[in-house]
Amino acid sequence: MDKEIKDPEGILKVITALFGKLPAYIVNAEKEFPVKIIALKNKALIINTNLKFPTRERVLTVVHNGSKFLAHFNLAGGDGNGIEILTPVKIQISAASRQGTRVEISQIQTGMVVTNIINVNDVSKAIGFDDKKVDAILLAYRTKLTKAFPLSSIFFAGRMDNRLRLMHHYDKDIFIVDRKEKSTASPAFFPFDEYLRIFENSKIPDNYTSEICVPIKYKGYVHLGYVQVLSEKQLDIEVYKQIQTFANAVSRDIINTGVFQESRDVCQVMDLSMGGISFIHAPSRSFSRSVTLNGTILFDLNLEAGKKVTIRGIIKNIRNQETNFRVGCQFYNLTEKDTEILEDFLNVGKEEVPNPEESGTQENPSSDGSEGEPNEEKFDSSSNTIESPNSETVMEEGSEGDPFANHMDDNFAENLEDPK
């Protein structure tokens, strides 16, 4: 290891600067898996993971400016259903290196292209302006919804409210069968105790006992709003499925209005792995608007005829190739569905390509794709601080400055049960 940080203040500075802003992974059985960072609270990191561990030790990793950060934690508490509270112990720093297999375009017989590129910041900006087409769609859907469920509403805005922000952080829908009976809660949905805190701070009358709240998302990634249904009687799973389908329909029709200015460029893919991608982009107007170093973008990856995934990624390098640009992009917490399609596509007899200088991709987070390209972000090993002038571009959508600003109750950590 090149450096080790054990000073508590230095550790917290690194965690605050990097975790929640960059793709984070957790080590389990010597492999690294994407992990959801929920909050930094009371000098502890709160995460969500479905993995099971033999001990109370946890190691989380991120890659920043050519360095790999391995943060060691101890499990301090949790809810037993994936939510864990981790207290930091130390951080080890070493040079990042590429690991894993990638596929060159010449190795596969397919017209792999990237289309519909859009910067995540532009998605949020687009719904912050009045648009008659969007307003008409929302009005029509609100009318349909209230006919079926009188105690319902659709929230849609360019800025998250507290309910949407928490659903974004936990990445779970709200499905409360009976607010007064915890045994009816399922770990597959938003944490029951955390919901009670939302309810206490809301203006919802006490006679409502059941709630379903499903986010409206842009292509499964960016939270735009939510569909909410309240009831004095218990709602069941069939109603939840109906609301889920309803929210997806709202999202689909709003996207189809064209309010989101996606790039019309068709970009040839140069190589691909489970960790990232590189593609060629012409120097068009949409390129200068959407493609910025360390920016977070969304795009459609057309793998082959009839097979497409939507990707969220962070741009790690941009290289001028005379007439075009080669863009290296690291994947950032893909949806489960898109991950499965990508794994299935890459999981057939691919041999490792040993030339790392042609792409900004990597199989796992041990390489950030920068590969010697100039970058303004710097890690100062003497002061344990990180300068990141462009860090706001790599936060998760809707974070609005503080990636850990989730408005959770101050006693959240104390109220969670100890791990079993």
TrEMBL record:
Polar residues: bias regions: 358-369, 381-393
Region Disordered, residue ranges: 351-420
Coiled coil (UniProt feature): none
Every PilZ domain range: 267-346
Family annotation (InterPro entries): PilZ_domain (IPR009875)
Residue ranges with Acidic residues bias: 411-420
Taxonomy, superkingdom: Bacteria
Protein name: PilZ domain-containing protein
